[in-house]
Amino acid sequence: MEKEETKEELQETTLPASVTQEILAMWKAKYRRVSSVTVTDGEDVYTGVFHRPDMNTISAVTKMAKTDEIKASNVLFDNCWLGGDEMMKEDAIIKMAAIGILNEMMNVGIATLKNW
Fold first, then answer.
1. Would you state the pLDDT for residue 4?
2. Which residues contact 99 (CB under 8 A, 6 or more apart)?
């Protein structure tokens, strides 16, 4: 029977080598929510770590998206990037795959309205 991995072991396996648990804890303390994005390109796997966008970033992305969606996506990527595999920033295809996931991050909250 195989040993089940703990939550910490699973997190460690998805983090880039340059990001330690201590660094991750520091980022979580500062940004509250921190996520990793992993992109597989053939045999190669690249991971970046991102924080949720703040209102200034959301505003810039929304404004820029009206004229150039690629530039808007780059603003989101660059402003939320915390660290990881540099290839994710350098290779356009890998970066666009990561951006696709980052765009989902803008729509994760669930809000409800109740009238009294």
1. 52
2. 73, 74, 76, 77
